[in-house]
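Researcher: I've got a protein sequence and the SMILES for magnesium ion. Could you write out the 3D structure of the bound complex as structure tokens? I'd like something to compare against our soaking experiments later this week.
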Amino acid sequence: MREYKIVVLGSGGVGKSCLTVQFVQGIYVETYDPTIEDSYRKQIEIDDKVIDLEILDTAGVQQFTAMRELYIKSGKGFLLVYSVDDPNSLKELERIREQVLRIKDNSNMPIVLVGNKSDLVETRKLTPQDGIEKAANWNCSFYETSALNKSNVDNVFVNVVEQIIRREETKTNGTSTGNQASVPPNGQGKTSNDTSKSFNTISGVHKDTKTDSANKKSPKKKKKRRCTIL
Ligand SMILES: Nc1nc2c(ncn2[C@@H]2O[C@H](COP(=O)(O)OP(=O)(O)O)[C@@H](O)[C@H]2O)c(=O)[nH]1
Ligand SMILES: [Mg+2]
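Model: Sure. Here is the predicted complex with magnesium ion in place.
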């Protein structure tokens, strides 16, 4: 069985634990001890292959401890989470992302930028466009999520796993990975399912920044994936 480590990073209070618990257990925990750093296991099935995910929900990102460095070193994919009502939390991700790239010694990692708390209407300070533009700079995927409404929660985890698989497949095929799919210049996130997969159990608005134009650069046809959250 394949096993991947996913690391969830971001400032305190952005909803890392709520997103993780919502994905793993399907429940919304209103208050979660902010100091708890724990790992969770969850299986998903992609193309009839069961994948075992170990998800590390981090806490207190201020100091990168030796333990944290170890986790990041063994992490295959990263969710960088901010909250749409807190511009500082998006800013903070710049530093966090740099740390990840430094520790991994790789500028082309499977990363999903996650703008959480999309359900907040009154107190929202960042638009989807803010996330789309940041993801374009970083050449990574982007979703707005709500752990509260379970909107796009599965999608962020599935997307990062798909990035990992794609990377492994290109490695096996011996071709260059190149950069990750890019954001279109007009900044429009897609609102339909990603071209690479169909979800059995996933709903919600898809704000992946990947585009078909990015896919067109590759002469190879992308495989349709079937994915189930187990
Ligand atoms: N409105 C709203 N609040 C959320 C959402 N996700 C988390 N929260 C709240 O944000 C606070 C911090 O969440 P938590 O997951 O503990 O943040 P962490 O420090 O990043 O792990 C909690 O009080 C949650 O109830 C969300 O999607 N929408
Ligand atoms: Mg937490």
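Model: The helical segments are 16-25, 66-74, 87-104, 128-138, 153-173, 212-216. The mean pLDDT is 81.
Researcher: Great, I'll pass this along to the crystallography team.
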